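Figure 6 in text form: structure in, sequence out.
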């Protein structure tokens, strides 16, 4: 049994407050008035002899009055023209407000139980701008708290991590799920060996990759992508593909150092200390990465593209995710291309830690003008739940005064997760912020 306990929305509102001026009434705070007079005097020395000049409020004011009279006298001879002054009173400046409220009594919990591999669900949170000025809505996922109630006894904490992939997907729209067992009589298996240096990642496929079987120069390929320092951005890929049209596989390195604002420098020579190879008649793909180049944790994902294969479903081609729930479709952050290097869809791998529901649950957040999800919604973020807080998604969705929008949270548990998350649960927040301007 898998339980998603709750989703709460924490809100921050922006308000403006005007303060009235406060004016002193005579004496300073160290002297109190008594019968209209200040009690207490201050003295200062007028020379080095120790004699003092006594100063009190009345004497100081008198002195100032003398200066004022002298100044008026000095200017009396030049004021030869009439003058008149009027004043406009009662002027007021009132600041507007941004006031973000939630529908449905102030909360919108997402509570799902008995979630099984392949299940999905949706929660809708209504947000309202009850202030007097228009605003811009930002949404982020935060405070992800997993509860791993069922550690995987079959996997060593310091040894290997294994993913059994039972399903692939064709390229139909929407995609069809394809059983690898039904198509090929077997499944794909990915193993990550953390006990060695270099770290070895192996994918065993039920189908032999073909570098010359696809149409229109789209041949089979297989790739592992790494977020080596676990900062939420892809660092490099290791791949086998026909990169030069020679109908043979090239074993290559894609440099992602310019991501996510730039693009990958593709098909580079494999660096020293790394290795990329195909074995077992192109059914096994192996990559090696120096352990010192991977943080703890690091994150990984991958995909095999069988362009030469026509599955029994209505679509053509077949993609096999090498990590549960991964796919190159759907952008990871607002306004980006389908896979631009923002590594929210990768799975974190850490020594001493096994997978939890937070590692494998796929969550998509969007903003809609109504309570139903559609292709016209404003995309916010998508990926593994525990990696979404890495994304500072600012959809800057307009929310006018008196208006309402709907934050839609969709979850899906990949059919490839296996037994790793039985009876696990996870709590997380969806933070909604209303600002006066974009990108605040």
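Output sequence:
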């Amino acid at each position: 049994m898998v339980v998603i306990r709750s989703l709460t929305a924490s809100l921050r509102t922006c308000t403006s407050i005007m303060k009235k001026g406060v004016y002193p009434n005579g004496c300073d705070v160290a002297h109190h008035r008594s019968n209209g007079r200040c009690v207490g005097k201050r003295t200062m020395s007028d020379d080095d002899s120790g004699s003092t000049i006594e100063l009190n409020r009345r004497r100081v004011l008198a002195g100032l009055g003398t200066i004022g009279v002298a100044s008026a006298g000095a200017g009396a001879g030049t004021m030869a023209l009439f003058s008149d002054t009027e004043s406009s009173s009662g002027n007021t400046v009132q600041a507007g407000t941004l006031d973000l409220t939630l529908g449905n009594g102030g909360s919108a919990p997402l509570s799902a139980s008995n979630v099984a591999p392949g299940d999905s669900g949706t929660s809708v949170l209504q947000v309202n701008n009850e202030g007097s000025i228009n605003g811009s809505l930002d949404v982020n996922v935060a405070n992800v708290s997993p509860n791993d109630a069922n550690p995987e006894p079959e996997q060593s904490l310091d040894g290997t991590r294994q993913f059994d992939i039972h399903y692939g997907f064709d390229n139909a729209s929407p995609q069809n799920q394809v059983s690898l067992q039904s198509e090929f009589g077997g499944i794909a298996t990915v193993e990550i060996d953390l006990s060695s240096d270099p770290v070895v990642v192996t994918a065993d496929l039920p189908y032999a990759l073909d570098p010359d079987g696809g149409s229109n120069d789209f041949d089979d390929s297989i790739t592992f992508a790494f977020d080596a320092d676990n900062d939420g951005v892809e660092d490099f890929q290791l791949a086998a593909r026909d990169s030069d049209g020679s109908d043979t596989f090239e074993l290559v390195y894609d440099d992602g150092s310019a991501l996510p604002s730039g693009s990958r420098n593709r098909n580079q020579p494999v660096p020293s200390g790394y290795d990329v190879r195909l074995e077992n008649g192109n059914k096994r793909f192996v990559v090696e990465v120096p352990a010192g180049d991977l943080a703890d944790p690091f994150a990984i994902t991958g995909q095999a593209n069988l362009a030469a294969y026509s599955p029994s479903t209505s679509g053509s081609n077949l993609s096999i995710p090498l990590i549960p729930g991964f796919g190159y479709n759907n952008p990871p952050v607002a306004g980006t291309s389908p896979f631009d290097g923002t590594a929210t869809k990768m799975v974190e791998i850490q020594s001493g830690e096994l997978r939890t529901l937070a590692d494998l649950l796929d969550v998509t957040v969007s903003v809609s003008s109504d309570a139903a999800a559609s292709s016209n919604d404003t995309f916010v973020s998508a990926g593994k739940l525990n990696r979404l807080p890495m994304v500072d998604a600012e959809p800057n969705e307009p929310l006018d005064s008196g208006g309402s929008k709907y934050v839609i949270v969709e979850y899906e548990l990949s059919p490839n997760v296996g037994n790793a998350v039985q009876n696990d649960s996870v709590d997380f927040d969806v933070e909604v912020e209303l600002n006066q301007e974009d990108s605040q």
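Caption detail: The CA atoms of residues 224 and 302 lie 4 Å apart.
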